Amino acid sequence: MTGFKLLLRRILPQLITLALVVGLISIMFPGFFEISLANGRLYGSPVDIFNRGAPVALLAIGMTLVIATGGIDLSVGAVMAICGAVAAWGITEGYGLLPTLLMALAAGLACGLWNGLLVAFLGIQPIVATLILMVAGRGIAQLITEGAILTFNHEGMIFFGSGSLLTVPTPIIIAILTGALVTLIVRRSALGMLIEAIGINFRASTLAGVNTRVLLVAVYMTSGLCAALAGIIAAADIRGADANNAGLWLELDAILAVVIGGTSLLGGRFSLIASLIGALIIQAVNTGILLSGFPPEFNLIIKAVIILIILVLQSPRVRTVLAFLSTARADAAGQEKKVVEP
Amino acid sequence: MNSRLLPLLATLVIFLAAYAVCYAQYPAMLSTRVIGNLLTDNAFLGIVAVGMTFVIISGGIDLSVGSVIAFSGVFIAVMLRDTGLHPLAVFAALLVLTTLFGAAMGGVIHYLEMPPFIVTLAGMFLARGMAYVLSIDSVPITHEFYEVLQRSYWLMPGKGRLTLIGGMMLVVFLAGIMLAHRTRFGTNVYAVGGGVQTARLMGVPVGRTTVGIYALSGFLAGLAGIVFSIYTSAGYSLATVGVELDAIAAVVIGGTLLTGGSGFVAGTLIGVLIMGLIQTYIIFDGTLSSWWTKILIGMLLFAFIVLQKGLVWTSGKRRAAGG
Amino acid sequence: MPHGDARQPLLHARGVRKIFPGTIALDGVDFSLHAGEVHALLGENGAGKSTLIKCLTGAYRRDGGDILLDGESIDPKGTLDAQAYGIGTVYQEVNLLPNLSVAENLSLGHQPTRFGMISVRAMNARAREVLSQYGLDIDVTRTLDSYSVAVQQVIAIARAVMLSGKVLILDEPTASLDAHEVKMLFDVVRSLKERGLGIVFISHFLDQIFEISDRLTVLRNGQLVGTEVTAEIDRVRLINMMLGRELEHETRAHGKLHEAAGDPRLVFSGFGRKGRIEPFDLSIHAGEVIGVAGLLGSGRTETAEVLFGVAHHDSGEARQDGAPVSLMSPRQAIKAGFGFCPEDRKTDGVIADLSVRENIALALQARIGWMRRIPDREQKAMANDYIRKLDIRTPDAEKPVGLLSGGNQQKVMLARWLVTNPSFLILDEPTRGIDVGAHAEIIRLIEELCAQGMSLLVISSELDELVAYSHRVIVVRDRRHVAELAGDQITTGNMVRAIAAPEREAVN
Fold it and tell me: Which residues contact A225 (CB under 8 A, 6 or more apart)?
């Protein structure tokens, strides 16, 4: 089987789900696929799904790697708020675009480093270690913005939120580029395999000479960096840093995207593209509910139902039962054959 | 000294020291008025934190409680607005509902063998979504019975008021302490947190205990919702966002091990009071900004997690050396 | 009755069989236990001791045979069920809850209650009373983990006896105890024996077996070797039973003598780690196979772990070709050209969900670094090369290694290290749990590798295997290297005698 076919088989359930969701929306809202070009930028619901889904997609990229190592990063929403605050602060203080962006990205890396050190070197459970920054992070962001919503009017910065390049909105480009870049790095280098090895069997990986601790820190730093990008986009989008609400609960959406993408919460094999499709599914559901005239309140209930379905499908017990049924069927088939043979 | 008591002792010392610092700057903070307010303002958090303590001691986590409180408020407000039911009847219906909700989550966790984190995340979305479905707007509660509830208090010496809801929190804590240390269920909760496999081998009914733990957390979240509705006279689906985090923080600062197996309900009360004290101090100060609360709580969390890690590490080391 | 004992045994297992996919773990084993008897159960890893115990306690469903308790056939459905019949078990890793108090551990599930509330006073009083029968006077309100493992063992025994009361199975209870604690535990065992309990005692410390047991049963490769009265057997015969070779079989298959040409490749001096393995000296030449013989728990695996940097050595130094080399982590050891196939393949060896190809490439990739990925084509070629060379039975290189049989997983582990072209390879029980065919292949491979100039350190409980390929053999006992055999000295008999030599020197 070629690599492409393997990939297709891996992401088929996610693609089918996405197609179902989109199909359902287009039935309820016939104008769904209309895309228009205005002021050199694409508009329309599909574009909107990509555009609104970009921050969660970015978070999901880092989260996928973290979850593949058997960890979890609860702090990404708060890190978004911190980095958005740094970006807004830098630009209003007049540091210029590039230094400001670098500062915001550095803040994300620093947050990731903190998480990674706690997990890899102090041996604290990931869920506990990242909880600290999840709680304190918004406080730090407010410290930077001094409690206010720090607004700015810098065209260069706003470009990252609502600008467009060759008619495509910038957030989409950033998310796709990041996804492609990380996929390329992870799959073209040996990182992907080493990360999966750590997630499946930490001790055996260490014994095989894998630099497990350093890799763990690197993975959490990647997650911090992705959160920083998402934070910059979120701040640029509203032209200001809202320490209280930027990225609020997005860590949960990101985890959900990874889970929908089929990466096990216990770690191991992962697929970045499947997580990205997972993020799109979440956003398609959001947009679909808005468009179809259902009250937006249904959104959360649908999310809950999605999680429940995935839970049931991923449950070790249900899997055992399914495996049992399929082998029983195979056995039955085998027996039939035996009967025919003589 | 038993090393398990050390985090609890640390919590107590921190609380007393913090209170001493507050008192040195603002002598008024020692008044029963401030203490009464401290209890009243944090009543709903304290009640929900008791449930969270049991969940965390068992090695689990419950992310749904904040949403359940919001749902409870909206449910009560809408029921009182749209039906002629007495608040007490509504309370009873609500508690049955939230207890069943918790039990269902416990069942999924145990029988489908799924991580509590993701199961209660679904519960969090579901409860918040149901609250939205009932009403998006804040629904005021105007029932004379509520006024009775709000006006009932016990005047402490020094003119401080121990309100009904503040007192309720203390009662819940007392009941929680009894449940944890004086019942088989309580011992089973510790046993499950100490090791599911071993507990099962020793005959602990793990499934029943797990369902019971999350049912208890659901029940207490419902009760906290009632208290919160009395406190605010309204039901609002956007209320108490992130309360689960505050509850988890209070439990950890109260000396309970986030990895399960060890902790005290009484410690959680002190944890809640420390968090309340930080807020009260910031209000008294007037110049300090509210975000320092979050940063301070984060720092306390870090300190306690490292302290616990250190304790586990040294006791492991001591055992290895002494073995 | 095989031993002419007229009494009816308390517990009697007849022809117990247990089959796992691919292996017969227990093949028609008989075992009997009398009231007031301590019956030792011996055998190396994989001999079937724990399988037998698990069949007796219902943790495993047996595939054949009967278990009689007081003459009546029983079929326990699980540990709790066995407990209700009267069979209690205490394991090496104490199966109590470290975070509960001593009293709670003793009474869990049976706490005295008043009006639905646990009566803590009654619970503690009862715990004190129970423990006083075992000569323990401790604070029962403290958590279990504030006491030493020995005290925890006694508490576990007290609980097991309280809840079952007929048969007590002690599964390696002394593995992590010191001499004084062992004595305390034995006092408890003797008093229980006097109370008429039947006690099954599993240990790999021969001194302890001789001290405490009345009879002993030896298992090997899932089969019953024999049951003997302890007082009528000597050490050498016992070890022969366990390791399965007769003393007569002493001649070496091929007289192998390594010409120690030139300087040794590796020299370890005073190498050791407190509590794991006493400091030892060891030098290894190119193309030399060092065998390590010793019973389970003697310090053989610890030797390998210290050499490979899994456990940090806290004394001594290592030199490679005359230059000092740091071995404080597996990474450093790998950098020095070491490789290590651990004994427990499942937890320490293979990455189950990764493919055969990825498992084989892992160590080499880790050494090269993540930046320079070994191209797919090379990985495949490498994997296919070794699948052919080592005859790894797998449909293709992309199959998850967890789905292969034990022997094939072992070969994948070997392949993982061979592709790194190591100068020194450590193999811990490379032939355990694999079928006869694969067994022979691995031995052939060891000989081939040393012929190519690789140095090997091979740990094995198959003594004749060690005779076949070792140039020198280190004998390990009580966490110390006690003998080094070379050339014609390498015979199973010499090894058995060195392992058996009763230890009289005081251990510091």
Answer: A62, A105, A108, A109, A112
What does pLDDT average to over chain C? 85
Threshold 0.90, pTM exceeds: no
Q: Which of C342, C354, C369 sits opposite A197 (nearest CB)?
A: C354
Same-domain pairing of C331 and C375? no
User: C201, C233, C265: which is the final residue of a domain?
Assistant: C233
- CB atoms under 10 Å from CB of C316, counted, come to 16
Query: Which of A6, A195, A210, A271 is the best substitution to test chain C (most C C-beta atoms within 10 A)?
Result: A210
Adjacent-strand bridge partners of C319: C267, C324
Residue A48 belongs to a domain: yes
Strands C11-20 and C64-69: antiparallel
Q: Min CA distance, C117 vs chain B (Å)?
A: 5
Domain of C331? 251-337+424-501
> Minimal Cα–Cα distance from A191 to chain B, Å?
27
Cβ–Cβ gap B323/C111 under 8 Å:
no
Whether residue C113 is contained in a domain is answered as no
Task: Give pLDDT tens digits for B214-247.
Answer: 999 999 999 999 999 999 999 998 888 889 989 9
Q: Which residue of B has its CA nearest to A311?
A: B114
Task: With respect to residue C115, please indicate whether it lies within any of the assigned structural domains.
Answer: no
Question: Distance of alpha carbon C189 from its chain centroid, rounded?
Answer: 23
d(C-alpha C58, C-alpha C74), whole Å = 10
Domain range enclosing A129? 10-296
Question: Contact C500/C236 with Cβ under 8 angstroms?
Answer: yes
Cβ pairs bridging A and B (under 8 Å): 130
Residues B114-158: pLDDT tens digits? 889 888 988 998 999 899 889 888 999 988 888 888 888 888 887
A313, part of any domain: no
Given the structure tokens 């008591």, which residue do they identify? B5
Furthest C-alpha separation in chain B:
69
DSSP single-letter state for residue C347: I
End-to-end CA distance of chain B: 20
How far is the C-alpha of B213 from the C-alpha of B216, rounded, in Å? 5
Dihedral angle of Cα B195, B196, B201, B207, to the nearest 10 degrees: 150
**Calpha distance A94→A88 (Å, rounded):** 10
Report helix, strand or coil for C456. Answer: strand
Cβ–Cβ < 8 Å for A52, A318: no
φ, ψ dihedrals at C501, nearest 5°:
-40, 115
Q: Based on the domain organization, do C405 and C472 belong to the same domain?
A: no
Asked if the structure places residue C128 within a domain, the reply is: no
Domain count, chain C: 3
The answer on C174 and C86 residing in a single domain is yes
Shortest CA distance from C351: residue in chain A = A201
* Nearest alpha-carbon partner for C289 in C436, C179, C454: C454
**Residues of C whose CB is below 8 A from A196:** 351, 353-354
ipTM for the predicted complex comes to 0.84
Among B2, B199, B321, the residue with its CB nearest the CB of C143 is: B2
Whether residue A314 and residue B126 make contact (CB cut-off 8 A), yes or no, is no
Q: How many CB atoms lie within 10 A of CB A9?
A: 10
Question: Is residue C77 situated within a structural domain?
Answer: yes
Question: What CATH number is given to the structural domain containing A243?
Answer: 1.10.3470
Looking at the structure of chain A, the number of domains it has is: 1
Residues C71 and C156 reside in one and the same domain: yes
Question: Which residues of chain B make contact with C83, given a CB cutoff of 8 A?
Answer: 203
Furthest C-alpha separation in chain A: 87
Question: In order of start, what are the domains of chain B with their CATH numbers?
Answer: 5-316 (1.10.3470)
Residues of B with CB under 8 A from a CB of C: 2-4, 178, 181-184, 186-187, 190-191, 193-195, 198-199, 201-204, 261-262, 315, 319-323
SS3 B152: coil
Give chains near C: 3+ CB pairs under 8 A: A, B
Any chain C CB within 8 A of the CB of A188? yes
